[in-house]
Design the sequence.
């Protein structure tokens, strides 16, 4: 009996580790690795792309589109935000740029 309970607990831990972040994932990370002299600038622009059901995708989530949307001529730093819902049934990727 104890062996069955122990194996179920181990199985539950393994499944939870494999499926972590599958129901909801919302992260933000930098697009650069050089942070020595990072200046954000006075302006901020963003662009966004979406995907639904792994079949349909739309939007321009590029750095250039984000700079144009924010009126930025010189880009100092860029981030990306990623949102996944229900195993990727809906996905949204946002690019945020900072500059002047």
Sequence:
């Amino acid at each position: 009996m104890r062996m069955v309970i122990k194996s179920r607990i181990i199985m539950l831990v393994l499944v939870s580790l494999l499926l972590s972040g599958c129901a909801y994932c919302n992260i933000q990370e930098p697009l650069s690795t050089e942070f020595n002299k990072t200046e954000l600038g006075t302006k901020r622009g963003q662009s966004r792309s979406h995907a639904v059901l792994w079949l349909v995708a739309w939007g321009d989530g590029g750095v250039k589109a984000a700079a144009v949307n924010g009126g930025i001529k010189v880009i100092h730093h860029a981030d990306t935000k990623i949102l996944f819902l229900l195993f990727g049934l809906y996905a949204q990727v946002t690019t945020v740029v900072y500059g002047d």
User: Anything to note?
Assistant: The CA atoms of residues 28 and 80 lie 6 Å apart. The two ends are 67 Å apart (CA to CA). The mean pLDDT is 85. The chain has one domain: 22-99.
